[in-house]
Amino acid sequence: MDAMIWDAGAIAAAALGGLMIGGAAALLLLVNARIMGASGILSAVIEGQRDGLVERVAFLGGLIGVPAIVVALGDPPATNITTNWSVLVAAGLLVGLGTRLGSGCTSGHGVCGLSRLSPRSLVATGTFITAGVLTVRALG
Amino acid sequence: MRALVAALAGGLFGAGLLVSGMTDTEKVRGFLTLLGPGPWDPTLAFVMAGAILPMLFAWRRTMAATPVLAKSWPDRVRGIDGPLIGGAVMFGMGWGLVGLCPGPALAALAWGGPEVVVFTLSMTTGMLALPRLRQRLA
After folding, report:
1. Distance from CA of A113 to the nearest CA of B (A)
2. Is B91 on the interface with A (CB under 8 A)?
3. CA distance B69 to B14
4. Cα-atom radius of gyration of chain B, to the nearest Å?
5. Which portions of chain B are predicted below pLDDT 70?
6. Which of B25, B40, B119, B130 to mutate to test binding with chain A, by most A CBs within 10 Å of its CB?
7. pLDDT of residue A2
């Protein structure tokens, strides 16, 4: 580690956004008894799983639609995403294959699983963060 | 009613991802820069901590109550195996390459430009391909 970026405003926004994310997961768990895992919900819909289809589509509608409305009201925030198409395609494939094979992503394992003290999710989260850190370290 | 709750949860999740900065790939990759290159940005840890807090209470509540609009709590999956770890390695590599995971990709899908659309299409292709790949390899 060379140095650390410490931006108090960004950290406050991060904590607030985090509480909103956790609040959404708690709502979905306590009312609908569903785990709020973005990859699990998306893959169930695109695979055409009939059971729970309507609520999963409604969830994705909110997830895609609400940020779209918020952004439309002001200036779009920067995504700073790479414009290298082969990297985008390769990374997308890895994320899609990996989240299915490993049964979850940052929301399912990282938020819902860690808060349940699930050993499975602890291992998954530790592994994907380590793989991400090593990838950034190796490729910059 | 369940669909309405799901839409509310999805909307709150999306707004939270936007507010927290998770749709900014530079912030996410900044967190993954723990071992360099360049300075480390710890912001993402605060998103995780903030998100885990309400869920700690929610899981405690599941021990004492039944779901409001469902019969039973979701089944608990157990066991640490090769697919769990292998999948997490692949996911982490993709996450590190671009700085997007599935939730933020969807939250930025409508306004993030063609790059987010290509990433998301590629991600869904990977999701759909996995069961077929596993069948072929089995």
Report:
1. 9
2. yes
3. 22
4. 18
5. none
6. B119
7. 60
Q: Which residue among A79, A80, A112 sits closest to B55, beta carbon to beta carbon?
A: A112
Chain B residue nearest residue A103, CA to CA: B84
Q: Is pLDDT of A1 > 60?
A: no
**What's chain A's Rg over C-alpha atoms?**
17
Which tens digits make up the pLDDT trace of A22-72?
999 999 999 999 999 999 999 999 999 999 999 999 999 999 999 999 999
- ipTM of this predicted complex? 0.96
pLDDT confidence band for A112 (50 / 70 / 90): very high
- A75 and chain B in contact, CB less than 8 A: no
The closest of A60, A90, A74 to B100, measured between CA atoms, is: A90
Cα separation, B90 vs A18, whole angstroms? 25
Residues B44 and A132: beta-carbon distance below 8 Å = no
Is B117 touching A (CB cutoff 8 A)? no
